């Protein structure tokens, strides 16, 4: 029996990307992840058969080098690409506004764009809906953000790439976006931040990675959904 085509998850060594990688491994689905920081979990993933490729997408060279390795190591092609890699940088920190915008456009626009352009030809097969690309955007694409201006704008560009690539790659490949609001906190989030964030949605929870896993499974099982953004935001738009 021919080996199933692997799913590529960018930024797959922590939090949502890691949960997705572990989920697919449990399902017997081959997985390739990119990682930037070599967390201890990388060893466990490799033991479980995950192909872990070091890649820093902060330069086009890093992006294209990752794509080259993917093409060289996977002549039979890919089942899907999940563009999870991201940085959530606010204005007013150590970096200048110009550097924040550059970094946000690099990781959320240039990296997905270049990876899709260089890898789409090996995603899926000749069959309709045999391949998938998933972009992780954000609820703030709808509303903007006064604290993460460049981040929101870059995710809005990624949202638009969803429709462009859906038009270009149909019917062989479906291209969709997932637009989360609060899914999981960061360790440094204090109690007042956490309560304030919970109060922004109708559901008032941080649902965790499983919420995203369920939706990714649906998108990959669909024969029809493409060019759409799927909100996972607890009804935040109705608050
Ligand atoms: N968590 C949440 O509540 C929400 C998440 N989202 C979106 O969901 C996705 C996953 O979120 P989450 O798991 O919290 O993301 P994290 O910010 O925790 O992790 C993102 C991953 O991307 C990697 N990464 C960042 N910059 C680069 C780079 N330049 N090159 C290569 N890899 C890089 C990180 O590597 P490293 O660990 O080495 O830095 C990390 O593994 C993201 O796209 C995010 O924007 C949207 C709304 C809410
Ligand atoms: N790359 C990341 N993007 C985002 C994160 C994160 O931790 N990493 N977190 C959020 C927040 O949860 C926000 O949705 C609610 O405060 C947004 N994006």
UniProtKB/TrEMBL annotation:
Which biological process terms from the Gene Ontology are attached to this UniProt entry?
Answer: one-carbon metabolic process
Q: In the UniProt record, does the keyword Signal occur? A: no
- What keywords tag this UniProt record? NADP, One-carbon metabolism, Oxidoreductase
Write the Enzyme Commission number(s) for this entry. 1.5.1.3, 1.5.1.50
The cross-references to InterPro entries, in alphabetical order and at most eight, read:
NAD(P)-bd_dom_sf, Sc_DH/Rdtase_CS, SDR_fam
> What top-level class of enzyme does the UniProt entry assign?
oxidoreductase
Question: Which GO MF terms does the UniProt record name?
Answer: dihydrofolate reductase activity
Q: Which reaction does it catalyse?
A: (6S)-5,6,7,8-tetrahydrofolate + NADP(+) = 7,8-dihydrofolate + NADPH + H(+); 7,8-dihydromonapterin + NADPH + H(+) = 5,6,7,8-tetrahydromonapterin + NADP(+)
Record's function text = Catalyzes the reduction of dihydromonapterin to tetrahydromonapterin. Also has lower activity with dihydrofolate.
* Stated family: Belongs to the short-chain dehydrogenases/reductases (SDR) family. FolM subfamily.
User: Which protein, by its recorded name, is this?
Assistant: Dihydromonapterin reductase
Q: Which organism is it from?
A: Mangrovibacter phragmitis
């Amino acid at each position: 029996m021919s080996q199933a085509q692997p799913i590529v998850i960018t930024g797959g060594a922590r939090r949502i990307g890691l949960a997705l990688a572990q989920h697919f491994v449990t399902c017997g689905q081959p997985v390739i992840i990119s990682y930037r920081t070599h967390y201890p979990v990388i060893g466990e993933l490799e033991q479980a058969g995950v192909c872990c490729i070091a890649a820093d997408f902060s330069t086009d060279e890093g992006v294209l080098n990752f794509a080259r390795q993917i093409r060289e190591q996977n002549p039979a092609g890919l089942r899907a690409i999940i563009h999870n890699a991201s940085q959530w940088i606010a204005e007013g920190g150590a970096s200048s506004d110009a550097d924040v915008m550059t970094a946000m456009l690099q990781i959320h626009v240039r990296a997905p764009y270049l990876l899709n352009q260089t890898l789409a030809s090996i995603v899926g097969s000749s069959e309709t809906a045999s391949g998938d690309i998933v972009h992780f955007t954000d609820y703030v694409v709808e509303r903007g953000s006064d604290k993460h201006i460049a981040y929101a704008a870059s995710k809005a560009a990624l949202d638009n790439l969803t429709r462009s690539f859906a038009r270009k790659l149909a019917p062989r490949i479906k291209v969709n976006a997932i637009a989360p609001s609060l899914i999981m906190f960061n360790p440094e989030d204090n109690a007042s931040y956490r309560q304030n964030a919970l109060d922004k949605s109708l559901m008032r929870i941080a649902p965790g990675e499983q919420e995203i896993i369920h939706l990714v499974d649906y998108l990959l099982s669909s024969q029809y959904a493409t060019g759409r953004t799927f909100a996972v935001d607890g009804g935040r738009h109705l608050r």
